């Protein structure tokens, strides 16, 4: 047995340190289709446990991959270089909900949906809502700066982070931020760790901003014969002073997949549908907002707009959006979901070019995403057992990233870089930016033990 494994078993106790073949397999993957075995898994229960793991790993120079629920879609939680998987799911306590200052302090392993329901019972609201809310942790959301359908109005996870507790590579505890709304004392270290994907430290506690829960929401589904018109809608709606909570785009391939799986009665003769939701504190205003958006939809080219008249109808409209990912499984054994972001005005051109890539390689690309913030999820459908298809997927992904960059966009809007997008980082950011980021990394993790080979190409 490795010396470091002995140390961890002695200091943490054997029930927190797993290393059987079965346990190693169980912690070898994330939400993608890649896999790599760790040498051991630690189920940390406290800051002290995490600190002990990182002190030991530094001393013995062992790689550490911090892990939440492993729902990540970029390979970030896969221990590609072996070593320790540091799972934080046992650190799942909501430490405080401060109803006066509208904040919540939670351990990193709290499941996002659990936090949402806890604060909603008190009339408060934690808006970030990745579709994986039931399968992802707050720590993972902060580490990936997770988004979701509500970003246009409410922003992303990072917009709610007021402070963090982070265990550094050498085991020291760093506390950043506090409940003060205004705080410019020193560099904003909280935001440095937002989106750092486990490469700068293990986030163990998070102080989050909350807002009052909007009690009213109205939902509509607009049918667009031309996808171009659907993306023009966003600008027209915003100009009317309405900021919908949700503007979810599904293209014709996505609609066909959902219909094939669910038979919801979605239109098969249009290029796109948009799921629109407005919410707020005042019922009449919310009704007016939805009516305004429905009117604008018709003005810019929608052939039909269905407005949900009841909670049941609203749930039915949402079923379409929530069914996209599962319905793809019926179409092909594998899917690779990308996460590019382009300026909103470039959505039609991005979709045109993505369809051309699909036609060039003969593999379907299903497109859906968050139209309000230009964040598209092109999903390539394929069979990984077919080496020819697998080779094509690699080339298609490269072309998808180049489309995003060429249109003034970026590699990822919410899923992160992990290992999958690493080769494209220089094209996206340039050498100077990568060099600055690498120096920050080495200042915090001089031995490069934290998630090595991910997020940041060494420079
Ligand atoms: C069906 C499905 C739908 C999804 N929908 C969305 C969506 O709408 N929006 C969105 O943004 N994402 C989405 N995702 C992606 C994923 O759920 C998010 O990236 C999520 O934030 C990951 O959380 P996790 O706890 O599973 O993290 P993990 O997958 O365990 O880890 C992800 C990365 O964060 C690091 N990490 C995790 N916890 C910590 C920590 N405490 N400290 C430091 N580093 C840490 C890991 O090392 C890894 O690099 C979806 C995934 C699936 C499978």
Walk me through the structure.
The protein has 459 residues and is an alpha+beta fold. It folds into four domains: 3-87, Uridine Diphospho-n-acetylenolpyruvylglucosamine Reductase, domain 2 (2-Layer Sandwich), CATH 3.30.43; 94-212, Uridine Diphospho-n-acetylenolpyruvylglucosamine Reductase, domain 3; 216-326, Alpha-Beta Plaits (2-Layer Sandwich); 332-423, Alpha-Beta Plaits, CATH 3.30.70. It has helices at 3-12, 21-26, 47-60, 112-120, 138-144, 151-154, 189-193, 227-239, 252-262, 283-300, 311-322, 324-328, 347-361, 387-406, 425-429, 431-444, and strands spanning 17-18, 40-43, 64-67, 84-87, 94-98, 103-107, 124-125, 161-167, 173-177, 202-209, 211-212, 216-224, 246-251, 272-280, 304-307, 334-337, 365-370, 375-382. The strands form four sheets. Strands 15-12-14-13-17-18-16 form a seven-stranded antiparallel beta sheet, with helices on both faces. Strands 5-6-10-8-9 form a five-stranded antiparallel beta sheet. Strands 1-2-4-3 form a four-stranded mixed beta sheet. Helix 8 (227-239) packs across helix 10 (283-300) and helix 13 packs antiparallel against helix 14. The longest helix has 20 residues, at 387-406. 49% of the residues are buried. The structure holds flavin-adenine dinucleotide. Flavin-adenine dinucleotide binds at residues 30-31, 65-73, 76-77, 88, 108, 130-132, 136-137, 139-141, 143-144, 146-148, 197-198, 202-203, 325, 414-415, 451.
Largest sheet: 7 strands, antiparallel
Number of helices: 16
Quote the beta fraction: 15-25%
Distance between the termini: 34 Å
Structural class: alpha+beta
* CATH class term of the largest domain: Alpha Beta
User: According to CATH, what is the topology of the largest domain?
Assistant: Uridine Diphospho-n-acetylenolpyruvylglucosamine Reductase, domain 3
Listed once per kind, the bound small molecules are: flavin-adenine dinucleotide
Low-confidence stretches: none
CATH architecture of the largest domain: 2-Layer Sandwich
